[in-house]
Design a protein that fits this description.
- By secondary structure, the protein is an alpha/beta fold.
- It folds into two domains: about 120 residues, Rossmann fold, CATH 3.40.50.1980; about 120 residues, 3-Layer(aba) Sandwich (Rossmann fold), CATH 3.40.50.1980.
- The protein contains eleven helices and twelve strands.
- Strands 3-2-1-4-5 form a five-stranded parallel β-sheet, with helices on both faces. Strands 9-6-11-12 form a four-stranded parallel β-sheet, sandwiched between helices.
- Helix 5 packs antiparallel against helix 6 and helix 6 runs parallel beside helix 11.
- It is globular.
Length: about 280
């Protein structure tokens, strides 16, 4: 028995360095998406985030800009000698991402999320990759608590119908395959195109009017959106959203959906729709 204990202690000491070595440290991270950058900041990794796109939040520590979502400066990335480059499956140029891999860089690609649950899964997977699982667990739990606390404050049987305008020329909206539908779920509303099995697609304004939404959310994609919104939609005075003055401008941050920002966005949308609860 004594020799068995000695053997297991020896085996543990022999293997423990290998276990420790598996937890790779990433001290130079390149983020190619505002969503990723926000996630890194939340997980306490801003000091190791050395490169970001021009659309990302700058944070509190100086970083290098490495281009846009689709036009990435490969040379600048190589000069930074990153430990890892993190991109999104749908937001970055696939050809460029493959080139970064061929150049020998480690590239981690975040999956597309179609609902809040997948947002949490993707967030936890990223945290696991970066050895921040404990931090992610706390953040996800906080987000879930915020969501359900807000949801349980309202009990609506008569769900309001919502149209999401996420592009104006041509008019673009969102369907069943987008996480946006969970904004509807958690605010007790209905996307008028929830039956369309697509993420984003173009629509005719006549079809929107025919579906007669109670609320129109216009995502703020440029500085002149308020003027354009009023000019376009207020021509259709019989539409419920227009008649009841329920056309709201929404910040593009609605698409930066970490679990925590998603929950906070739901609370903001709830207040916008119903007022203070």
């Amino acid at each position: 028995m004594k020799y068995e204990k000695i053997f297991f202690i020896f085996l543990f000491l022999l293997l423990s360095p290998k276990i420790i070595c598996n937890a790779k440290e990433y001290k130079c991270i390149i983020s190619l998406s505002p969503l990723i950058t926000k996630s890194l900041y939340e997980l306490g990794l801003e000091q190791f985030t050395k490169g970001i796109t021009i659309y990302c939040s700058k944070g509190t520590i100086k970083k290098e800009f490495v281009g846009t979502l689709l036009e990435i400066d490969i040379e600048k990335i190589m000069l930074l000698k990153p430990d890892i480059v993190i991109s999104t499956k749908d937001g970055n140029n696939k050809i460029t991402i493959e080139k970064l891999k061929r150049l020998g860089l480690e590239v981690y690609i975040m999956e597309i999320a179609k609902n809040f649950n997948e947002i949490c899964i993707n967030y936890n997977n990223l945290a696991k990759k970066l050895n921040k699982e404990k931090e992610a667990k706390k953040i996800v739990n906080t987000a879930r608590n915020l969501l359900w606390r807000n949801y349980n404050k309202r009990n609506c049987s008569n769900n309001l119908k919502v149209f999401w305008e996420i592009g104006k020329k041509p008019l673009c909206t969102t369907g069943k395959q987008s996480f946006i539908n969970d904004y509807n779920y958690f605010t007790n509303t209905i996307n008028i195109y929830e039956n369309i099995n697509k993420r984003y697609f173009f629509v005719d304004i006549e079809n929107v009017i025919e579906r007669n939404p109670d609320i129109i959310f216009v995502v703020n994609v440029d500085n002149d959106i308020q003027h354009l919104k009023n000019k376009k939609w207020h021509e259709y005075k019989k539409t419920k959203a227009v008649k009841n003055n329920k056309i709201f401008t929404i910040d593009t941050n609605i698409f930066i959906y970490t679990p925590l920002t998603f929950a906070k966005n739901v609370i903001t949308l709830t207040k916008t729709i119903y007022g203070e609860i």
